[in-house]
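Researcher: Re-running this chain for the archive, since the previous output was lost when a drive failed. Same request as before.
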Amino acid sequence: MSMWRDALGSTRGKVVMGVVAAIVAWQVWLSVAAAGKLADGIPQEGRRVDVLVTLPFAPERFHIQKFQSLGRVSGASGNSVQVRGVNRADLRKLARPFWVERVEPLT
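Model: Regenerated C-alpha cells:
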C-alpha cells in the first residue's frame, strides 16, 4: 500500500493520474457526444442502414478507410461521405470520432 501512497504523493504520480483522468474523461465525452450526432429519421427497421456522414472538412483517405471498416463507402461530396450497409449496432461507433459532425439517413 505504501507504494501507491508514495506514487500518488509525488509530483510525477499526480501528473500521471491527471493525464489518466483526462484521457478517461475524453473517452467518456466522445461516447456521450456520439448519441447527439445521430440525426432523427434513421430507419428503425432492418439490420443495416445507409447514412450520410458529415465532417467539418473535406474527408481524406484516413477518414474514408475508417468508414469502410463499418460499411461500404459509395461516394463523397464536399464534406460528406455516403456509407451504405452500416450495421445499426455500429452507428454510435461511426459517430464517435471527434471529427464527425453528423450522421443522418441517406436519402
